């Protein structure tokens, strides 16, 4: 999707809608108010919301990869719906990445990101941590209605258990990376700063993960951690930078990249208003190099 210029005030309102309990009717009313009417708001809405018709950078039937959908034991009685993707021609054991979604579940965009990892030579597992509430229901609007049922500490424990399962697979080299976007990025931060982090998790990458307080646990960091942020994302940057500063002061391998002119969710190429192509490419290239270096057998 080609980047589209949308006034920041509309993007900020959409961020409020997607990250706080702002009812859709209230969001639409406010959008119409600041846009100057319902006609203008209707024209803006397709630019602000994700368009999953544009989701497949790597098609599900791409001949370079093989995929399967499985249910993995979260360790707490929940069967976590998971997309597993890997290079079709791969032999031997592969570096392995767990992909953690935004606050809508394993939607078509995150499935596509999982497939992209497979084309780069990884065994990739896209987990649906909305499984504890039944799983991604088919639309983001429906997912928003149930995502409040997802408990972050429980989700972290599920990923940690799935990392053990993934490491034991015969096609994994036993070294696991975790990458997360938005809500999922926050869960990566939780995992990296957890004293209960399993030893097979060897690296983490956070894309604009929301939340604060990780700096209090910076001394727990045992593996390399990369954080990708957009300069316009005022909602998540401060907490991530404070954590990174504390971690680096404690001698930990934590690095932060801030992409000028990029918003929250700048990697999401199904979202015309927020996708920032140059930043997404640079962040992806850095992510690939980082995981390939830190997940080597």
Structure report:
By secondary structure, this protein is α/β, with parallel strands linked by helices. The chain folds into 2 domains: 8-48, no CATH class; 56-294, Rossmann fold. 37% of the residues lie in helices and 20% in strands. The protein contains 9 helices and 8 strands. It has an 8-stranded mixed beta sheet with strand order 1-2-4-3-5-6-7-8, with helices on both faces. It is globular and about 60 Å long. The relative contact order is 0.13.
End-to-end separation? 36 Å
The main sheet orders its strands as 1-2-4-3-5-6-7-8
What CATH architecture of the largest domain would you give?
3-Layer(aba) Sandwich
Relative strand content: 15-25%
CATH class of the largest domain: Alpha Beta
Tell me which oligomeric state these chains represent: single chain
Helix content: 25-40%
CA radius of gyration is: 18 Å
Basic shape: globular
Helix segment tally: 9
Order of helices and strands, N to C? HHHEEEHEHHEHEEHEH
């Amino acid at each position: 999707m080609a980047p589209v210029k949308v006034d920041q005030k509309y993007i900020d309102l959409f961020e409020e809608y997607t990250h706080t309990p702002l009812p859709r009717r209230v969001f639409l009313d406010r959008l119409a108010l600041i846009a100057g009417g319902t006609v203008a708001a209707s024209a803006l809405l397709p630019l602000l919301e994700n368009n999953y018709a544009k989701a497949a950078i790597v098609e599900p039937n791409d001949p370079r990869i093989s995929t399967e959908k499985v249910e993995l034991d979260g360790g707490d009685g929940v069967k976590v719906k998971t997309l597993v993707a890997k290079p079709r021609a791969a032999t031997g054991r592969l570096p392995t990445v767990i992909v953690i979604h935004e606050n809508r579940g394993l939607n078509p965009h995150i499935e596509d990101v999982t497939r992209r990892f497979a084309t780069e030579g990884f065994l990739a597992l896209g987990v649906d941590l909305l499984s504890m509430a039944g799983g991604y229901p088919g639309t983001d609007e429906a997912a928003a209605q149930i995502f409040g049922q997802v408990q972050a500490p429980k989700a972290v424990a599920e990923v940690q258990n799935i990392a053990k399962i993934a490491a034991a697979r015969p096609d994994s080299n036993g070294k696991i990376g975790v990458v997360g976007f938005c809500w999922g990025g926050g869960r990566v931060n939780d995992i990296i700063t957890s004293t209960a982090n399993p030893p097979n998790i060897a690296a983490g990458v956070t894309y604009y993960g929301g939340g604060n307080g990780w700096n209090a646990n910076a001394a727990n960091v045992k593996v390399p951690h990369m954080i990708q942020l957009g300069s316009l994302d005022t909602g998540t940057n401060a907490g991530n930078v404070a954590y990174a500063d504390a971690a680096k002061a404690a001698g930990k391998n934590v690095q932060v990249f801030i992409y000028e002119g990029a918003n929250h969710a700048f990697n999401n190429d199904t979202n015309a208003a927020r996708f920032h192509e140059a930043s997404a490419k640079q962040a992806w290239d850095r992510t690939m190099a980082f995981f390939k270096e830190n997940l080597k057998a």
